[in-house]
């Protein structure tokens, strides 16, 4: 596949340190730019391209699935997944409100300061693995604070991947219908246009990562014991073509797991100067009924309104679950055109602009809590 010359390619041409043989021996990375990958773009048959071509495509904002290891994922959409109806209106307002009152910006700020301090969380880097292990330890710390009876319901595991940075799955087992699963998710990896450059990824998707982590903390503090199983997922390798979420979705679909719904939180911190503070509700490549329910949750529990917006094909991990035939949705910090323009650069930092807002992130923690309780139930 041929790509037009970009700023990325121009940097490579001008800088000897970006010669391909140097790339392939870069310390701290396990990345072969000549490796062949099967990539699927919107409306086109899959094509083989090199890892370097994938990087060029991403730099041009071309969205794609890397389906090298998940070529049959779409076939599961034709199987008889259980279809669930979503409530006409929220029904657990007292319980949701009691939990969201305990949410704080203190934990997310401290966690994101650390999480974005890794030079990069690129999924094929040593620091990407280190950041994943740090995140795992934070989830473990929160779980240790749970009541003894809640701990018996919690299962924390790593979903192993060949590239080294694993996805993380936290499950609170349901008491009434444990075979039905509600998923709250974010992706933990980050990238720069060249993966070997610094990528603090404070907003993309450090913000979503700590947003749902704060929701989990508040639920643990409230001794939340759901009727359905509620899971929190932190995916690896979203920036590599939704690799981690595709692997997890395929494994769930192969086991015929009854996923009620999954909701992705990717970028939750940015409020563009001069715009109204809003929660972006993605309306393309999502489940319409779940999206309508998400709007009702925003209206009921958030202090800001929603705005409908679109982000395109394969733009985040919800697309993997939709491809597998499950109901998936996606909420983002704003309308897509007003979202953070520093992503995929060394400037995706907490301190780069007053537009980075922890109180805005808190609104999305409210949404994650509401999603978990309203669809998971509370025994």
Automatic annotation (TrEMBL):
Its cofactor is Zn(2+). Keywords: Aminopeptidase, Hydrolase, Metal-binding, Protease, Signal, Zinc. GO terms for biological process: proteolysis. Residues 1-19 form the signal peptide. PANTHER family: AMINOPEPTIDASE YDR415C-RELATED, METALLOPEPTIDASE M28 FAMILY MEMBER. This is Peptide hydrolase. GO terms for molecular function: aminopeptidase activity; metal ion binding; metalloexopeptidase activity. Pfam families: Peptidase_M28. Belongs to the peptidase M28 family. M28E subfamily. Residues 168-360 form the Peptidase M28 domain. The keyword Transferase does not apply. SUPFAM superfamilies: Zn-dependent exopeptidases. Its EC number is 3.4.-.-. The keyword Repeat does not apply. InterPro entries: M28_fam, Peptidase_M28.
């Amino acid at each position: 596949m041929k790509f037009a010359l970009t700023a990325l390619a121009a940097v490579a041409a001008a800088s000897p340190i970006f010669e391909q043989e140097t790339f392939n021996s870069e310390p701290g990375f396990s990345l072969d730019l000549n490796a062949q990958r099967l990539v699927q773009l919107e409306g086109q048959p899959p094509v083989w391209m090199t890892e370097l071509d994938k990087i060029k495509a991403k730099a041009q904002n071309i969205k794609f699935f890397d389906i090298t290891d998940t070529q049959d994922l779409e076939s599961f959409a034709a199987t008889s997944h259980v279809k669930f109806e979503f409530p006409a209106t929220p029904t657990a307002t007292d319980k949701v409100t009691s939990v969201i009152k305990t949410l704080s910006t203190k934990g997310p700020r401290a966690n994101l300061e650390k999480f974005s301090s890794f030079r990069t969380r690129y999924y094929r880097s040593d620091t990407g693995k280190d950041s994943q292990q740090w995140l795992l330890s934070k989830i473990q710390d929160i779980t240790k604070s749970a009541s003894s009876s809640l701990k018996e319901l919690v299962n924390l595991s790593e979903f192993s991947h060949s590239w080294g940075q694993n996805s993380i799955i936290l499950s609170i087992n349901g008491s009434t219908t444990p075979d039905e699963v509600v998923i709250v998710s974010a992706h933990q990896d980050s990238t720069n246009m060249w993966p070997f450059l610094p990528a603090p990824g404070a907003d993309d998707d450090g913000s979503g990562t700590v947003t749902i982590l704060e929701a989990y903390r508040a639920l643990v503090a409230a001794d939340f014991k759901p009727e359905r199983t509620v899971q929190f997922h932190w995916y690896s390798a979203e920036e590599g073509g939704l690799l981690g979420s595709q692997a997890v979705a395929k494994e769930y679909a192969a086991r015929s797991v009854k996923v009620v719904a999954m909701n992705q939180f990717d970028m939750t911190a940015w409020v563009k100067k001069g715009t109204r503070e809003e929660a972006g509700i993605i309306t393309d490549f999502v489940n319409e009924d779940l999206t309508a329910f998400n709007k009702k949750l925003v209206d009921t529990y958030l202090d800001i309104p929603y705005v409908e917006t679109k982000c395109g094909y394969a733009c985040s991990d919800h697309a993997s679950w939709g491809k597998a035939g499950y109901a998936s949705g996606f909420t983002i910090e704003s309308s897509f055109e007003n979202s953070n323009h520093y992503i995929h650069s060394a400037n995706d930092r907490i301190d780069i602009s007053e537009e980075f807002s922890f109180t805005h992130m808190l609104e999305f923690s409210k949404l994650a809590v509401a999603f978990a309780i309203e669809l998971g139930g509370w025994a």
